[in-house]
Design goal:
alpha/beta, 7-stranded mixed β-sheet, 7 strands, disordered N terminus, disordered C terminus
Length: 216
């Protein structure tokens, strides 16, 4: 009996160790952090959270493609001189996303969508012809996830400050240990939910436990 109990305990501990090493831990993550989110991690750079953001962005960008009004060159932005294609987009991931997270996410988006996906930076914001997709929230609970994607709507009149009207689309996912798959979506009326502030990559700071985006 003691031997059986010891083997069982060892198996449980080994499983917990493997999950911890893989970044799964409890499987509870919310970004930006909501104080009432029980056991929520504050690291938005875990692989499962990156994959959830990418999958949601893929669905929204495929469903609602946007053509850039005019071509600009990379020389306008970083001195590289490489022409942007008409499908260049910028992505604003959740606050606290680091450079490696942006690199991985943009590569996956570029490879899967046939567009040039680039991180949002302060320099990109100076060029309003580059559409910016914003991830407002990532909510992961083991086998399910919920991601808010804000898409710019250039077919509507711009706001007084010249920025586009955004529409929030909540993408519900299933997966976790399997690749995330879209379960269902919720489309909000344009402009009814305020788009979160841009967080350009060059202004990256470590995330804090500050509730800046409430549940709705």
């Amino acid at each position: 009996m003691k031997l059986t109990r010891s083997i069982t305990t060892a198996l449980v501990l080994s499983t917990a160790t493997l999950l911890s090493l893989s970044g799964c831990t409890t499987g509870y993550h919310t970004y930006p952090v909501i104080e009432s989110a029980e056991s929520a991690s504050i690291n938005p750079n875990l692989p499962t959270n990156i994959e959830a953001q990418v999958r949601a962005l893929q669905w929204v960008i495929n469903k609602y493609p946007i053509e850039v009004p005019r071509a600009i060159t990379r020389n306008d932005i970083d001195g590289g001189g490489k022409p942007f294609s008409s499908g260049t987009i910028a992505v604003n991931l959740v606050p606290g996303s680091d450079q490696d997270t942006y690199r991985r996410a943009c590569k996956k988006l570029s490879d899967s969508l046939g567009v040039e996906a680039i991180p949002l930076t302060s320099a990109v914001l100076e060029h309003p012809t580059v559409p910016v997709y914003v991830v407002g929230r990532v909510w992961v609970r083991t086998q399910t996830a919920k991601v808010d994607i804000f898409r710019p709507m250039y077919d509507l009149p711009r706001k007084p400050d010249g920025t586009p009207v955004y529409q929030c689309i909540t993408v519900n996912l299933r997966g976790w240990l399997e690749p995330w798959a879209v379960d269902n979506i919720q489309v909000r009326e344009p402009g009814t939910i305020e788009v979160p502030d841009y967080t350009p990559l060059d202004t990256y700071v470590r995330p804090t436990r500050t509730a800046i985006f409430s549940e709705y």
